[in-house]
Amino acid sequence: MISEESFIHTFIVRNRRGRLLYELADPKKRHAALDRFCHSSADLLDPKHIVCTVRSFKEIPAEFLNQEECVILSPDPSFDQKKMTFAEALEEADLCFDAMILLSKPYCAVKEECPGNIFLLK
Questions:
Q1: Which parts of the chain sit beneath pLDDT 50?
Q2: Whole-model pTM?
């Protein structure tokens, strides 16, 4: 699994990294940072790392359903920083209406607020 900082440096466009890192580290601003992924994920994600974009979890290719542990980032405090397998996290994300970021290796996923896109990253 990768850290929040590694995720930002690897998958986020350069001009948005500093602010996101600052806000994620500040408990008062963390929610606002994660909330940006509800609607504007495409503006934040570096397109060269987007492997595919789907609208439903049923469309996710089997190769992404690994059993590696991952960490969930979400503006929803009941999910934020929760650990589970990537496959379990995808199931949880399907039930959550808020944005979710799944940090794993070798893949990460960003789910926008419902109904939104699911970006699979490598």
A1: none
A2: 0.89
